[in-house]
Design a protein that fits this description.
The chain is mainly alpha-helical. Helices cover 62% and strands 5% of the residues. The model is unreliable at 91-96, 127-132 and 844-873 (pLDDT under 50).
């Protein structure tokens, strides 16, 4: 009879694994080893194992007592493998239970203190006595560290569950492996707990009952890892109190009753840097250093990405942290750099992507195209070419699968690395992507135009039909409040959409979006964002050869430059816009640009030029029957007439403008018209009428949410209160105006409010405070080139010296103010100063303002100037 070949350790390991009904991957997972290590041992590549490896395998296979010792001896090549089987056959059934199968805890665990506290608090004994069954579903995006957290938490809790701690991977996202069926999972749990295979009944229900019976009245901890859905784990749950179940899943298991959901987010920047330093194990790499901060930021603070880059640093000593940070920042595909051996962040994301149904999968790809940081349901519907209801269903599935976050109700956002993955998927079909991006731009443009009509007071130069068809679905924005809320919520997305259009040969969209947003951005003081959009629109129009679009964008840019105090830049842009629109025969555009130029000339003190510009704008607007531009020209012309002392003409101009604004239903225009008329009434001594006009303007501005207009009206209300002797109320009004001007970054407005506060302080004998206000106003006016307001500051400083009885010190600033007023043609102001000089018998030649040690000059931050109906008196 032929002799039977001796049993090798490789054969022993295969047989024991088969008896346990474990795959190589499952055994490796249970033993905290790599699948390659188990495979090499079973194939005899490695004929023996180290003692620590053998001990881990014995524990994973549920071997105990003498069988365990014989197995370890055989694994090290110091004893026959067949004795292991003989010893096992002598052991009573069920004696080979493995009650501690948790993977090893990681020494580099970082953060998650708040989530750990929640788990520990769940173990507090209840009033009724004992612990209730605790189910904690730990969910999060791929790579966020769910398993690491759950294993760490389980190790912290082992002493609370003396009857066993079981770890079972369910492989919802294991490459090349199907998720474990509930019946198979129950069989694995029962065998791990020591139930012989022959005693495990067939069928899901019978096995679930056998499992619940086995752990009844026991205090066990069950960790179910990488769960596909609630159906997979519901049969595995204990039926009695005293046990705890930790579940990890990429999906939000909302249908799992009584489960406490713990959603893991990415780590904080500080925690991310600590994790990188621990894993990289480099003496020179510490949290808080610039390179560590940049690497973790570019990893999106995702633990999986951080661990892979840390592995590269650990295993490539020649590479530097700064070099890796630079490589990441310059990479066109960051995900391609985030890998370790056969693992990668991109592959982990792709497993989640392939789990999706077709509709959400398509939307996920297209979400990679969004230029802004987030989307709502309407934007997603436009992007995907579906209805809002269909888009909502797809967004909900993406959210449930942690492929999308919802940072605010109804707003959805991709993690940076998920966005890169989605963009790479979208790049595979450029035709689909171009169409989707076009639909999104059309949606943003048409909806922004509908909302922007509530804010466009001064006749934007863009008058052409918008490019692209209107969207099939868009939110209703019939009121100012709704329009303002939508524009504010979408501001970052609209800015990004306009920037995207400018950079992707879609100049008409860029220019039209700018025109739709300009009124809102000016009203709310978003100056830097508006400036970037204007510059992008000018560049896009020039690149596309769109001369009419270029003229429109230049006119808007010039108005913005004026508002932000760049008077030379504004003059150049507006002159170009006037010339270009004239060459093109665009009379409405020419009238708009002339009005903007004329108001700039008012601010710089060139009243004759301003009068000519507004009269020309008026004539052009009337010839083109552009009534809005005509009304604006009348308001601005009325301002110049006021400043040059022609009060009847100014009153008539403002009244004509108000009539036009009412006919047009332009509430913003009416507000500016009332405010301008109120200044005329104030200058002519009709304070009752002036107060009523300013109050009408202030009410309209508040109803419209127009902060700049409110500040202007408050400043003028304060003048009426001062002239009628209500100094306390005047101080409140001017201070409120100064605060709003400061919040908006409006430097000219700040100078005007400071001058009025200075004049009020002079009347109330607070001379030191008055001089400080005027000195600050003078600094701002000189820096801006706002000549009239600078003259008013000089006049105010002179008045403080006169109030102190120092006519000699008053002479120089008073004479300087007179010279300016006479030069710019400000007749009422010049007459006022001449009277003061005569009364106090002052005589001096213009010269530099003498230094005043009691004054304090402060440079204010840059910001906008005033709108057309504002007074400079």
């Amino acid at each position: 009879m032929a002799e039977q070949p001796a049993l090798s350790f490789a054969g022993l390991l295969r047989r024991l694994r088969d008896d346990a009904q474990l795959t190589q991957e499952e055994l490796a997972q249970a033993a905290s080893l790599s699948p390659r290590s188990v495979s090499d041992l079973e194939r005899g590549v490695n004929r023996t194992a180290r003692r620590d490896t053998a001990v881990l395998l014995a524990g994973a296979l549920g071997l105990t007592g003498p069988v365990r010792e014989l197995f370890v001896t055989a694994a090290r090549g110091r004893g026959p493998a067949v004795e292991v089987l003989a010893a096992r056959s002598r052991v009573a059934p069920g004696a080979a239970a493995a009650t501690r199968t948790l993977p090893r805890d990681t020494v580099s665990f970082t953060g998650r203190e708040r989530e750990l506290v929640r788990l520990l608090e769940a173990l507090t004994p209840k009033a009724a006595g004992g612990l209730v069954l605790g189910i904690h579903a730990i969910d999060g995006m791929a790579g966020v560290g769910k398993t690491t957290f759950a294993v760490h938490a389980a190790h912290q809790l082992t002493d609370r569950f003396p009857d066993g701690q079981f770890f079972l991977p369910l492989h919802a996202h294991t490459p090349g492996q199907r998720p474990v069926a509930p019946a198979d999972a129950l069989a694995s749990l029962l065998m791990t707990a020591g139930v012989p295979a022959r005693q495990i009944p067939p069928g899901l229900e019978a096995r679930a009952a056998r499992w619940r019976d086995h752990i009844a009245d026991k205090r066990t901890l069950l960790l179910l890892d990488d769960v596909a859905g609630h159906e997979q784990v519901r049969p595995l749950l204990p039926g009695t109190a005293g046990s705890m179940v930790l579940i990890t899943s990429r999906r939000r298991l909302a249908a799992l009753e009584d489960a406490v959901q713990i959603s893991l987010d990415t780590l904080s920047p500080a925690e991310s840097q600590t994790l990188l330093a621990r894993l990289a194990a480099r003496p020179g790499l510490r949290a808080g250093e610039a390179a560590a901060g940049e690497i973790t930021r570019l990893c999106g603070y995702l633990p999986l990405a951080i661990s892979m880059l840390a592995s590269q640093l650990r295993n490539h000593p020649a590479r530097t942290e700064a070099g890796l940070a630079t490589e990441l920042a310059a990479a066109r595909d960051r995900l391609a750099l985030m890998h370790a051996e056969n693992l990668s962040v991109g592959a982990a994301f792709d497993l989640s992507y392939t789990d999706l149904t077709p509709g959400p999968r398509r939307l996920f790809r297209r979400l990679g195209l969004i230029p802004g940081p987030s989307v709502d349901v309407y934007a997603a519907a436009a992007l995907d070419g579906t209805s809002p209801d269909a888009a909502r269903r797809s967004l909900d599935e993406l959210y449930d699968q942690h492929l999308l976050a919802e940072p605010a109700p109804g707003r959805y956002q991709l993690h940076d690395l998920l966005r890169e993955h989605a963009r790479a998927l979208a790049a595979c079909d450029t035709a689909e992507s171009d169409q989707a991006a076009g639909r999104l731009l059309d949606y943003y443009l048409h909806t922004a135009r509908a909302a922007g009509r509530h804010f466009t007071y001064w006749a934007s130069g863009y008058r052409r039909p918008p490019p692209g068809p209107p969207p099939a679905h868009a939110p209703e924005l019939p009121t100012l409040a709704q329009a303002g809320a939508w524009l504010e919520a979408e501001r970052a997305n609209l800015y990004a959409a306009a920037d995207y259009a400018a950079g992707h040969e879609r100049a008409p969209h860029a220019i039209a979006l700018l025109a739709a947003l300009s009124g809102f951005l000016a009203t709310r003081g978003h100056w830097s964002q508006s400036a970037a959009l204007h510059q992008g629109a000018v560049a896009a129009a020039r690149l596309a050869g769109d001369r009419l679009g270029e003229a429109d964008a230049l006119a808007g840019l010039g108005a913005l430059q004026r508002e932000t105090g760049d008077y030379p830049g504004a003059a150049a842009s507006l002159a170009q816009a006037v010339a270009l629109s004239g060459d093109l025969g665009d009379r409405p555009g020419q009238a708009y640009a002339l009005n903007q130029l004329g108001f700039l000339q008012v601010l710089t003190g060139d009243y004759p030029a301003s009068t000519a510009s507004h009269q020309q704008a008026l004539a052009v607007a009337r010839s083109a029957r552009e009534r809005s531009a005509e009304a604006v020209a009348l308001v601005c012309l009325g301002l110049v007439q006021l400043l040059t002392g022609d009060y009847p003409a100014s009153t008539a101009s403002h009244q004509q403008a108000l009539t036009l604004f009412r006919d047009l239903g332009d509430l913003g225009g009416q507000a500016y018209g009332h405010n301008g008329l109120g200044v005329v009434q104030q200058e002519t001594g009709d304070y009752r009428a002036a107060a009523a006009s300013h109050q009408q303007a202030l009410t309209l501005f508040r109803d419209l949410g127009e902060m700049l207009g409110q500040a202007q009206a408050l400043n003028d209300v304060g003048l009426v209160q001062r002239e009628t002797g209500d100094y306390r109320a005047a101080a409140v009004s001017h201070q409120q105006a100064l605060t709003i001007f400061g919040d908006l970054g409006n430097r000219l407005g700040q100078a005007e409010a400071l001058n009025r506060l200075g004049e009020l302080a002079t009347r109330t004998a607070d001379i030191r405070q008055a001089r400080q206000h005027h000195a600050r106003a003078l600094d701002i006016a000189r820096d801006l080139g706002a000549v009239p307001e600078g003259a008013r500051a000089l006049e105010g400083i002179a008045q403080t010296h006169l109030r102190e009885g120092n006519p000699r010190q008053a002479a120089v600033p008073m004479t300087q103010a007179l010279t300016i007023y006479q030069r710019i043609g400000a007749a009422p102001a010049a007459q006022r100063v001449q009277q003061a000089l005569q009364v106090h018998t002052l005589a001096a030649t213009p010269g530099p303002l003498p230094a005043d040690p009691s004054s304090e000059t402060h440079q204010s931050s840059g910001g906008p100037g005033k709108s057309p109906a504002e007074s400079t008196t």
